[in-house]
Amino acid sequence: MPVREALRDLEAEGVVTVFPHRGAIVTQLSADELQDIYDIRATLEEMATRLAVPFLTEATLAELTSLVDQIDDHLGDVATLVRLNHQFHLTLYAASGRKHLCEINRMLRYRSQHYLHVFTVETESRHMPPSQREHRAILEACKRGDAEEAAALVREHVAQVGRAIVEYERQRDESAAATNRTG
Fold this sequence. Notes:
Blueprint lengths: L1 H11 L3 E4 L3 E4 L4 H22 L5 H16 L4 H17 L4 H24 L5 H17 L2 H36 L1
Antiparallel strand pairs: 1-2
Helix pairs in contact: 2-4, 2-5, 2-7, 3-4, 3-6, 4-5, 6-7
């Protein structure tokens, strides 16, 4: 029973598609759907950052610093990178105190997390060093208490990752279509 309930929850969040009496699969998103998700994420995560920065405590800033440092220590471990990246962003947004905004951000991040993981594996983590520079810039703006700069940096960071993943997925779709035409 708990597995069925978990699958229903994941299906409600759009993470899996359940086929009665056959099983469940990770929901496949088109490049256009991913673009939509990343556009929404960029806007909502910018908002969450702007609302969070005034409420960041020394403890939260220390936790964010630790997460960025841990990402540096795990550049070859994609599963850990994706988890730490997710944790960095959600820790930042939680300081806003906006429960529903944070929940929507969490849900959209989970819905697109599989694609980030695949993209990072397939591009051999080439995008992590620039992403880490962006994390550090966001963190520095947070430490200065500059909500507007931190929010703008988060928006561009999320949008940039989204553009790269959407382009990657479009190329994969085109490659698969070409293979299907010739095969």
